[in-house]
Amino acid sequence: MKSSLKWFAVLTTIVMLFILLGGALVTKTDSGMGCGRSWPLCNGQLIPDKITIELVIELSHRLVSGAGGFLVLLLSYLSWKKIGHIREARFLSVLSFGFLLLQGLIGAAAVIWSQSDFVLALHFGISLISFAAVFLLTLLIFEVDKKFEAEKLIVDKRMKFHIIGVLTFCLVVVYRVLL
Questions:
Q1: 151 flagged as catalytic
Q2: Which of 54, 58, 88, 143 is flagged as catalytic?
Q3: Which of 69, 76, 154, 167 could form a disulfide with 93 if both were Cys (CB 3.0 to 4.6 A apart)?
Q4: pTM, 2 dp
C-alpha cells in the first residue's frame, strides 16, 4: 500500500478526532448558538461583525467539520479505489462518509430549529460512529500490507453475541450519561 494513502488516512483520523473534541467544546461551553440560528453562515454573514468567544468556538467547529467532510469523502473514494476488493473497506468507506454527512445534517438541524438533549445525544452518537469507521478504515489500510485476509476470519455465534452486547451496553451508558 502506498505510504501517501496511509498518512492521508492518519491525517483524516486526526481531523475526525478534532471534530469530536470541537463538538464537546461547543457543548460544554454552550457555544452552540454562537453563530445564531443561521447555518452554514454565522449570524447570516460569511464574516460576522461582532466576534465573541462563543462565535469563535462554534465557527471553528463548523470549519473543521467541513474540512473533515472533504477529507473523509476523499479517503472513502481512495480506499474504495485502492482496496475496494476487501469487503470491509467498502463497508467502512460508506459508513464513515454516510454517518459524517448525517452528523452534519443533524448539527445543522440543531442550530436552525432547537437543541434538545436528545438531538445533541444523537449528534454525538453518530459522530462517534463516523470516527470509529474512519479509524477502522485507517487500521485496515495499514493491515493490507500484512496480507490480512478477512475472508478467513471466522467469528462464531458466541463472539457475535458478545460484540452486540458490548456495543449495546456502550450505547446505553453513553446516552444515559448525556441525557
A1: no
A2: 58
A3: 76
A4: 0.74
Q: What are phi and psi of 45, to 5 degrees?
A: -125, 155
Strand-pair partners of 42: 45
Q: Are 13 and 140 in contact (CB under 8 A)?
A: no
Please state, in angstroms and rounded to a whole number, the distance separating the CA atoms of residues 79 and 94.
10
Which grid coordinates belong to 7? 498518512
Q: Give the residue carrying C-alpha cell 448539527.
A: 107
| Cβ–Cβ under 8 Å, residues 77 and 96 | no
Torsion sign over Cα 92, 95, 98, 102: negative
Which residue is it, cell 461551553? 29
Give the span between the Cα atoms of 95 and 101, in whole angstroms.
10
